[in-house]
Design goal:
By secondary structure, the chain is α/β, with parallel strands linked by helices. It has 3 domains: 3-97, MurE/MurF, N-terminal domain (Udp-n-acetylmuramoylalanyl-d-glutamate--2,6- Diaminopimelate Ligase, Chain: A, domain 1, 3-Layer(aba) Sandwich), CATH 3.40.1390; 101-327, 3-Layer(aba) Sandwich (UDP-N-acetylmuramoyl-L-alanine:D-glutamate ligase); 336-484, Mur ligase, C-terminal domain (Protein-Tyrosine Phosphatase, Chain A, Alpha-Beta Complex). The chain is 32% helix and 23% strand. The strands form 4 sheets. Strands 8-7-6-9-5-10-11-12-13-14-15 form an 11-stranded mixed sheet, with helices on both faces. The radius of gyration is 24 Å and the shape is globular.
């Protein structure tokens, strides 16, 4: 494409006609992806400043550079375009380069601390079962038709995202459900994407190392509603007020709740080890809609409410939605039951926040006939404030705790564990194993009849990051290997 097609308000950037018509072969903010004919967008990141790499990008063949700061070196062979926000410029260019594919799709965005993945996959399952060609973009990867693309981020960078939209549209996909993280919203990764539906699941302590405080965290997530035609919010969540009151009137925010009056309310809730059952009462109807779920956990009632509200707002029949929810089994690493052939149970879950761990253990406690044993840790180089909080929660809700490493990244694993221990008072129920494999083995070795062993924090992940190095580590394999020798 020609440069002028990729730059917002290009005619007012002071470029000559020749410069405007430069042929661009690809767009990137990643130096390693620069090649002859590239448009390089210099983005100032959390750890690196893309402006430092502009001279190298030009030497590698970049024909145009978008930047916020004046480059330290200027080349006659490159066009430099100054902008106020290079992140938005990157998103705009990516959208244009891939033919505005996102505008051909009905996009449903899910944001919130917990529940994004399960809710997104619930919605996609309902739509698919009703005959809609639907794709999913999120934490466990991108799925559409027979394609699967692994993901390193919950929400991809703009270039990858619009490339995915393009592939989906070309393959006949009409609807996309995507998880939208607070980082993605704060960094304008989805700038220019028009969401048909935006869903807020909940907000609890997480990522404060990045956002600073809960107010900024909420403000970032609220940006999804600014880009959504239909807004749906969990009325029961902490910090829900700005979401619930985002807009009012006939086209105001739709709400869901298990306790308060709302547009979609869950009543007569039953949570068992075999699944959930409840009724959804819509504010515009007197007839309750019966919901059955194969998956358990009170938090999955909220996920189902969010999914029901999202699909209902698109006009799908209630009977089709309830049938879709009834047929939904699970997502890898989300309340995932691992078959052991033993008289105790093992559950793997991604819970890595105080709220997530609390919801998980409370749900397991509600149906566990024996003791609840939990294996967990906290990630390194991330929000440290949640560590003692998670320690307190585990101590309150579990019978035995096997405290260990998650992804220590570049931190000392023992120091992370010490932070968690500061939130605990009763050391008698806690055993510490820096090595996660050892912690899992000890938990399985300790488990007795009717006990439930909960492995929290890793979920779908099949690796550990230790000393900055990603190493293969699949908890399902660890369980299988242990049981083979017992």
């Amino acid at each position: 494409m020609q440069l002028y097609e990729l730059v917002e308000d290009a005619e007012n950037k002071g470029l000559s006609e020749k410069e405007l018509k430069i042929e661009i072969e690809n767009i990137t903010a990643d130096l390693s992806q620069v090649r002859e004919g590239s448009l390089f967008v210099a983005v100032k990141g959390h750890h690196h400043n893309g402006h430092d790499f502009i001279p190298q990008a030009v030497k590698m063949g970049a024909k145009a550079v978008i930047c916020q700061e004046k480059p330290c070196e200027i080349s006659e062979n490159c066009v430099y375009i100054a902008v106020e926000n290079s992140r938005k410029a990157l998103a705009y260019a990516a959208k244009e380069f891939y033919g505005r594919a996102c505008e051909k799709l009905c996009i449903i965005g899910i944001t919130g601390t917990n529940g994004k993945t399960t809710t997104a996959h619930m919605i996609a399952h309902i739509l698919t079962e009703s005959g809609v060609k639907c794709g999913v973009i999120g934490t466990v990867g991108t799925v559409f038709q027979d394609s699967f693309l692994p993901s390193s981020h919950t929400t991809p960078d703009p270039v990858t995202l619009h490339q995915i939209f393009s592939k989906m549209a070309e393959s006949g996909i009409t609807h996309v459900v995507m998880e939208v993280s607070s980082h993605a919203l704060a960094q304008d990764r989805v700038y220019g994407v028009n969401f048909k539906v935006g869903v807020f699941t909940n907000l609890s302590v997480d990522h404060l190392d990045y956002h600073g405080d809960m107010q900024n965290y909420a403000k970032s997530k609220l940006k999804l509603f600014e880009q959504a035609e239909i807004c749906i919010a969990n009325k029961d969540s902490d910090f829900s007020e700005p979401f619930v009151n985002f807009k009012s009137g006939e086209n105001g925010v739709l709400t869901f709740s298990a306790h308060a009056d709302s547009d979609y309310k869950a009543e007569n809730i039953s949570v068992t080890s075999n699944g959930n059952g409840f009724n959804i009462v819509k504010s515009n109807s007197f007839t309750p809609i019966k919901i059955k779920q194969k998956i358990s956990g009170f938090f999955n009632v909220y996920n189902a409410l969010a999914a029901f509200a999202a699909v209902d707002s698109l006009g799908l029949d209630s009977s089709e939605i309830s049938a879709g929810l009834a047929g939904f089994s699970s997502v890898k690493g989300r309340m995932e039951t691992v078959e052991t052939g033993r008289d105790f149970s093992v559950i793997i879950d991604f819970a890595h926040t105080p709220d997530g761990l609390g919801n998980l253990l409370s749900s397991v406690r509600s149906f566990c006939k024996g003791e609840v044993l939990v294996v967990f840790g906290c990630g390194g180089d991330r929000d440290k404030s949640k560590r003692p909080m998670m320690g307190r929660i585990a101590e309150a809700l579990a019978d035995k705790i096997f405290l260990t490493s998650d992804n220590p990244r570049n931190e000392n694993p023992q120091e992370i564990i010490d932070d968690i221990l500061r939130g605990m008072k009763n050391s008698s129920k806690t055993r510490v194993f820096v090595d996660r494999r050892e912690a899992i083995c000890k938990a399985l070795e300790t488990a007795k009849k009717n006990d439930v062993v909960v492995l929290a924090g890793k979920g779908h992940e099949t690796y550990q990051i230790i000393n900055g190095e990603k190493k293969h580590f699949d908890e399902r394999e660890e369980i299988e290997n242990f049981l083979k020798n017992r």
